[in-house]
Amino acid sequence: MSHPQSRFGIHGGQYIPETLMNACIELEAAYNHYKADPDFQRELSDLLNNYAGRPSRLYYAAKMTRDLGGAKIYLKREDLNHTGAHKINNVLGQALLAKKMGKTRLIAETGAGQHGVATATAAALMDMACVVFMGEEDTVRQALNVYRMRLLGATVVPVTSGTATLKDAVSEAMREWTKRIDDTHYCLGSVMGPHPFPTMVRDFQAVISQEIRQQLLEQEGRLPDAVLACVGGGSNAIGSFYHFIHDPQVRLIGCEAAGRGVDTAETAATIATGRLGIFHGMKSYFCQDQYGQIAPVYSISAGLDYPGVGPEHAYLHDIGRAEYVPVTDEEAVEAFEYLSRTEGIIPAIESAHAVAYAMKLAPAMRPDQIMVITISGRGDKDCAAIARYRGEDIHE
Amino acid sequence: MSNIAQAFAHGKAFIPFITCGDPDLETTAQLVRAMADAGADLIELGIPFSDPTAEGPVIQEANLRALQGGVTTDKIFAMVRTLRASVTIPLVFMTYANVVFSYGSERFIRTCAELGIYGLILPDVPYEEKEEFCPLCRQYGLDLIAMIAPTSEDRIAMIAREASGFIYIVSSLGVTGERRQISTDIKPITAAIRRVSQTPCAVGFGISTPDQASAMAAQADGAIVGSAIVRLIARYGRDAQQPVADYVREMKQAVRILM
User: Fold this and answer.
1) Do the Cβ atoms of B92 and B47 come closer than 8 Å?
2) How many Å apart are CA B109 and CA B125, to the nearest integer?
3) Using CB atoms, which residue from A162, A181, A277 is nearest to B98?
4) Of A129, A125, A85, nearest to A107 (Cα)?
5) Least confident of A77-91, A285-299, B140-154, B165-179
6) Residue partners of A261: CB distance under 8 A and separation at least 6
7) Which residues of B touch A167 (CB under 8 A)?
8) Which residues of B touch A286 (CB under 8 A)?
9) Which residues from A are below 8 Å from B148, CB to CB?
10) Tens digit of pLDDT for each residue in A322-360?
C-alpha cells in the first residue's frame, strides 16, 4: 500500500526502482529520528546561523514600494545566505543527516548550479566526497558555478543524455544512486522526487516562512497579505509559504517560468501547461505530450527549467490554497534590471520571476497591504547570460 | 494459472528484451518472429520513454532512436495487433509508469489484454505503489511483474508473496547494461523467495554472455537479456534479424541444458 505520509492529496508517492526502496525507507527513518533529536536540531541551527548567516534579512524595499505605488513591499533576502541562495538551508540539513547516517559521499543534481555549489560547500565543510550532475547545456550557461564546485573539491559530471538540462541531471543522479547506495546520499535539491524528499526538503526550507512570520510581526505587528516566490521544483516557494498555509488571509503566489510564453512550446510553466503524471519518483503535474513523453521545457533560467513541480505545490494548487502564475523570460529580465536599479539588489534570474509578478500585483494592492517577495538567490551568476540576452557579448 | 507460466514450462526460460520501434516497427515485428523461432520463451517489448531512469546508455539510446523515429504507444499497439495473428509466444510490455498512466491506465491495460499481452514490467513502480496498476491488471488478466533487487533484503518475502506471472530478480545495483562480472549472490535471494512463493524467477540486468546466462539461470528459472541484444540492433539496424536470432539461439542453448 502507498505510504500515507508520502502523499499530498493524490500527489507524491514513491515511484522508484525497487533497488532504491530500502535507501528511501532508511532515509525516512533516520530523518524522523533526527528531526526529533534536540542535539541534531541544535547542530543544524548552529550551522544555519553561524555558517550560512541566518536569519536572513527581511528588508523593507522603500524605493520599490514608492515607485510601484501600491502594497508595502518586503524582500526576504535569501540571496544573502552563504553560497548566495536558499539552497544552503536544505543542503546543510541533508548533509548533516547523511553524516549521521554514516554516509561519506554526497551526490546532487543542479540546474543553475546554486544547489550544486551549496552541496559542494557542505561536502567540503563536512569532509565528504561530492559528485554533481549538471546538464551539459547548463555547464555552458553557468560556467562560473562549474568552476566554483570544482574549487570546492567536487567532481562535476556534464550530463549529455536527453535534453542535457536539469531533468536529465536528476535522472542521472538517480541512476548513480542506484549504482552506489551504501556510502552515498542523494542530496536532492528541491521539494520533489520520491518520499521522503518533498517533506524533508520542505521542512529544511520552512525556516524561510518561520522567519518571515516572526520578522514581520516584529516590524509590522501583523501577517503579510501576499507572499510571492518563484517555482521550479518549488523549494524556496514551499519554504516561503509553509508557515502561512493555515492563515487563509495570506495569499500564496508561486511564479512559474513561462519561457517565451505559455502558448508556445518553449515554456517551463508546469501548472499552467502540464498534466497529471508520474515521473522522477512522484505523482504530480508535468509538461508532457499525449503519450506521456516528458516535454523538453525551456526557460532563460536554468534553475526553473524543469518539466515538473513538487507534489505539495500540485496539492496546494488543487485545493486552491496557492495561486500559480506564469512569468515570461522578457518579464523576468525586466524585473532583474528593475530591482538592480531600484534597490541596488541584483536578484537571481529565478527570483526575478517573483519580482516580475510583484511589479504587476503591487500597484493593484492598497498601501496598507503588505507583500513579501522571496529573493531566493543573488544574480551575479546570471549577469553574463542576461547581458547576452540584451545583445552584449560578455566573457566571464 | 497465469498465461506467463507457459514460458517456464519448457525448462529454464530465455527472455530477450527489445525496444519497440528501434530502428522501426517493421524491424521490431521481424525480430519478435525471429527470436520466437530461435527459442525465446517470452519476449519483453519495451515501449520507449523519454526519460528511462532505470536504463543504462545502450537502452537509453534505443529509446531515443525509437522516439525520434516517431513511435507512439498507439503505433506499437497496432504493430502487436498484426503480429499476434501469426505469433503465439508470450509477450510482456516493459515501460515506465507515466506511459501507462498518461494513456489512461485502464484503457492501456484493457488494450494490452485485447492484444494478448500477458504482463507489464514497470521499473518505477515498487511494491508500495503497485495498487496504482495492480487491480486493473488483475481485472483484465495481466500480471504486473514484481521486481526484487540486491538491496531488497527484508522486503523479499513481502514482495514475493504477492507476485504473479514471474519475479524479475535484478542481478546488480545500478541501471541496465552489460557487466563483465555479476558479483551479487543470487542464491540467498531465490531461497528467500522460494520460502514464500512458487512463482518462477528470472534474473536480469548485466547478463550478456552464455556463461553468465547459464550461471544465473542455474540459480533461478530463467535469464533476461536486454542491452546485449539492443546493442546488436544498434549495430545491424534493419539487418539485425540474423545476428539477433543467432545470439538468442546460443543463449537459449546455454540455459536450456540446465534442467
Assistant:
1) no
2) 15
3) A277
4) A129
5) B165-179
6) A267, A326, A328
7) 51
8) 98
9) 18
10) 999 999 999 999 999 999 999 999 999 999 999 999 999
Separation in Å, CA of B131 to nearest CA in chain A: 7
Q: Tell me the pLDDT tens digit for each residue of A14-69.
A: 999 999 999 999 999 999 999 999 999 999 999 999 999 999 999 999 999 999 99
Cα dihedral B221, B227, B233, B236 sign: negative
Which residue of chain B comes nearest to A293, CA vs CA?
Answer: B50
Q: Do B149 and A288 touch (CB under 8 A)?
A: no
The pLDDT score that the predictor gives to residue A396 is 57
Active-site residues of A, by number, are: 87, 109, 376
- Residues from chain B contacting residue A19 (CB–CB below 8 Å): 149-151, 170, 173-174
Any bridge partners for residue A59, and if so which? A75
Per-residue pLDDT band for B181 (boundaries 50, 70, 90) equals confident
CB contact under 8 A, B101 and A292: yes
Burial letters B2-41, b for 16+ CB under 10 A, else e: bbbbbbbeebbbbbbbbbbbbbbbebbbbbbebbbebbbb
Euclidean distance between CA atoms A115 and A190, whole angstroms? 9
| Contact across the interface for A293 and B67, Cβ inside 8 Å | yes
Q: How far is CA B158 from each of CA A16, B2, B134, rounded to the nearest angstrom?
A: 17, 20, 15
Q: Are strands B167-170 and B146-148 parallel, antiparallel or unpaired?
A: parallel
Q: Which domains does chain B have, with CATH numbers?
A: 12-256 (3.20.20.70)
Residue B222's beta-bridge partner residues?
B13, B202
- Residue A347 DSSP SS3: strand
Residue B49 burial (10 A CB sphere; 0-12, 13-18, 19+) = buried
Mean pLDDT on B94-120: 98
List all residues 6 or more positions away from B62 whose beta carbon is below 8 Å from its beta carbon.
B19, B22, B46, B48, B230, B233, B234
Grid cell, residue A268, equals 517551463
Does position B34 have pLDDT exceeding 80, yes or no?
yes
A182: nearest CA partner in chain B: B151
Q: Is A292 on the interface with B (CB under 8 A)?
A: yes
Which residue from A109, A103, A102, A48 is spatially nearest to A80, judged by alpha carbons?
Answer: A48
